[in-house]
Amino acid sequence: MAREESDREDLLAEATALVERAELLTLNDGIAVVAGFRRDGAISFYFGADPVYQFNARNELRRAFRQGRLIKAEQGRLVALTRERTETESQLVRHELSRSETRTLLAELDSHLSELAQRVRERRFQLVGQVPPDVDVVGRIERWLDSRGDTTIAASPRVG
Length: 160
Fold this sequence. Notes:
Layout: H1 11-14, E1 20-26, E2 32-37, E3 43-47, E4 52-55, E5 60-66, E6 69-74, E7 77-85, E8 90-96, H2 99-121, E9 125-131, H3 137-147, E10 152-153
């Protein structure tokens, strides 16, 4: 995830931790989605600058970025970190998501990923680019989306 709070301009070029990645422009709404895999198989989805969903290699949600907040997994629960600035400092304020807030986030995640899966299956997207160019990255993303099942929350925000 970007350390700065600016829009992510060129994830296809800059997200080098995602060794296989593709940028898809979804047809009808024109949303750019970057999805990619780390070496261990962990996948991340960037729906423009927000939302972002990152999974570990066990397909558990480990981090998200939604409505300007970093959300991370801690012991199977989700915790939001919100940056609050004063004239002299910047603090991250921690808030554990309630069951209702967690259900809402997971429902939105499911909606985003289900819609993306449908568009990929129906080939309703334009491939903007991919890295590496000679691998079926879109096919790998499609297989992950089709086999993902219910989303579970990781014990930790770490990849491994």
